[in-house]
């Protein structure tokens, strides 16, 4: 409770500074739970979330808007490409490998956003203030020597939406859709809701019978993330065909 109170106080202070000073203020990267707390609050100035690309999970809060302040925001985000020095000697590396190596530099998780792995290359979003430090000091991921460089933006391959696929569910209940997407039983799906680990567009979903809005991004901690597109039809047995885009 004390942590949540401190978090809310920090959000209120950032909003007050933006409102009183007529300039943008920014938080550090927020978890889904922290984003949920933010979205449940009211402020005297507009607030939005930005993770560097559409569909980002870890995002910073941006206090202020062009309507409020008269000019566009320039979120303090940087993009880094992490590639093996030699493709020939590169080992297969995962998101966890890259994240562990970045945090192994002594950085706090709140200064780093999402990391996308595409083949042997990874693309990281971070706060601009620590980008040069990462570029200068990250020389190895596991046993693979790597080189880093700053990018103006993430390449298209990293922000491409997953292909559409179809799942079969008994209803549009959130627990039924989560169960269908991740191959769970209904009772297994309900445990994730009870544990507070299901988020739709960064808002905590605690009710298994909630209805998901077509187009929303659903994250289930420990399982993965997908975009729920909507109903595409039905089966002969009266079940629903649902269209989703599942991140892998």
Summarize the entry for a quick read.
With 248 residues, the protein is an alpha+beta fold. It is 29% helix and 32% strand. The protein contains 8 helices and 14 strands.
Task: Please render the helix and strand layout as text.
Layout: H1 2-21, E1 25-30, H2 32-39, E2 47-50, E3 59-63, H3 66-69, E4 77-84, H4 95-103, E5 112-118, E6 121-127, H5 128-137, E7 140-141, E8 144-151, H6 156-159, E9 164-169, H7 174-182, H8 186-194, E10 198-200, E11 203-204, E12 217-220, E13 224-234, E14 240-246
Antiparallel strand pairs: 1-3, 2-3, 4-6, 4-8, 5-6, 7-8, 9-14, 10-11, 10-12, 12-13, 13-14
Helix pairs in contact: 7-8
How would you sum up this structure, described in words?
By secondary structure, this protein is of the alpha+beta class. It has 3 domains: 2-69, Ribosomal Protein S8, Chain: A, domain 1 (2-Layer Sandwich); 77-159, Alpha-Beta Plaits; 164-246, Roll (Structural Genomics Hypothetical 15.5 Kd Protein In mrcA-pckA Intergenic Region, Chain A). It contains 8 helices and 14 strands. The strands form 3 sheets. The protein has a 6-stranded antiparallel sheet with strand order 9-14-13-12-10-11, sandwiched between helices. Helix 7 crosses helix 8 (186-194). The two termini are 34 Å apart. The model has no long low-confidence stretch (mean pLDDT 94).
